[in-house]
Amino acid sequence: MTGENADGGNADGTSEGVVRRDRFSGGPARSFLSSLEADARIFEADLEVDRAHVVMLAECEIVESDVAGKILTALDAIEVEGHENLPDGEDVHEAIETAVIEQIGPDGGKMHTARSRNDEVATCIRYRLREDVLSAIETTLALREALLEVADEHAETTMPGYTHLQPAQPITVGHWALSYENAVRRDTARLLDAYGRINQSPLGGAAFAGTTFDIDRERTADLLGFDSVLENSMDASSSRDFLLETTQALSTLATTLSGLAEDVIIFANRGFVDLSDDYSSTSSIMPQKKNPDTLELVRAVAGDAAGEVQGLTTTLKGLPRAYNRDLQRATPHAWEAVDAVREATEVAAGAVSTADWNEAELADEAGAGFSTATGVADLLAENGLPFRTAHEVVARAAEVDTDDEFEAIEAAAAEVLGEPLESYVDPAAVEAALDPAESVASRDSQGGPAPSAVRDQLESGRQALKVDRTDRDALEDRLSSAHASLRQEVGEYV
Ligand code: ARG
Known about the structure:
The chain is mainly alpha-helical. The chain has a domain at 373-434. Helix content is 65%, strand content 4%. The protein has 20 helices and six strands. It has a two-stranded antiparallel sheet. Helix 7 (117-153) runs parallel beside helix 13 and helix 15 packs antiparallel against helix 16. Mean pLDDT is 93; it is low at 1-17. It binds arginine. The site of arginine has 10 residues, from helix 7 and helix 13. Arginine binds next to helix 7 and helix 13.
């Protein structure tokens, strides 16, 4: 094979598609080679990339203005016809070019001057992925908002906190909700960060080795709303690390969601939370069943997303420079991940915001399993006992099988310290430390579960949400205004 440069981007505008169809018209591997069906996802992106490229070619006097006008008119007609009516082709780029040539004749072949499908496809993927990542970010913002609302409503609701799934210390529902809000906040940040590297233009890199034409890469980047140009033409056309880091960020988000889903599934099992019917399912045989299926599916999406990361990494690993056709199979991993994770985030937000927290049940269980033990040990330590000794006293009390924890502590103190409890600490303070609500209220250190600390965290959560929302919306505005101004430029020719 002679490669893309030999039959693409010719000075006389000969159609690459036409040439290729003569020689490689399709043997048994035709459908194996083709990405046309999967390329439906980048149909609009490709038309937009074509428009920007043609406008730039005309501005740089590489293609005559009237020819540019004819090509741009044909592109509009092709958009109306839709992806499903494209002529056959190895991919959407070839099919659109063929359609342009069918409409306006050989001049249509000038569209592919000074570029290759290699920089073209890389540009289309980045173009489309920007929109998808912005809408995935939107779902993380909605989830954060839902978690903030739960935290606001339940800043004071005491609940059991667990480690190793064993009752550990009482907390508040607000504290639990904010623990996920904090994590999702970082997931938003990772996606925003990845967006910055998606939003760079490979267009003009050509097959990988640049072009003899005096093109203006900054101009096409700007027309398409990209922040900058990917400088090195070989890197521009062949690197896919932007796909990998985006899929990884999505997979990390999905992992956060899976923990959230698992918690709510367990809470539903314990009667702490009631999912709304909209986010539950039932059994086809057991009429009494109400199951948290939506959250189980959210939990499973983490596995899918991790699988996409694995597939993508394995495809990209060891690929030599520059373009290799393996890359065609890399792209769908990112689409799968972004679709699944976006939907899972949306569902998680809906399930969380419509769930009912059973405050009475939570309060009952908050002190179960002597979960206030740490607070009692802290109290003894505050009153002068070495923490290790205090721990020993409370640990002994915890071994006693009794409902009267105070009595057990008194007995353990007498045994370990050889003196009555009240000679170390006010018994009323011990009673208070044993109360789950008081125990929570006393843990008011920064970021802690006390209602006052939850209120402070709510404030920073709201502030961060506002900033991220503004940033995201500005990115979206930049895309829409690029789209509008490209429309206007096209209007000059058609
Ligand atoms: N459809 C291909 C892809 O998705 C782009 C075509 C580049 N083809 C080539 N033979 N250089 O990656």
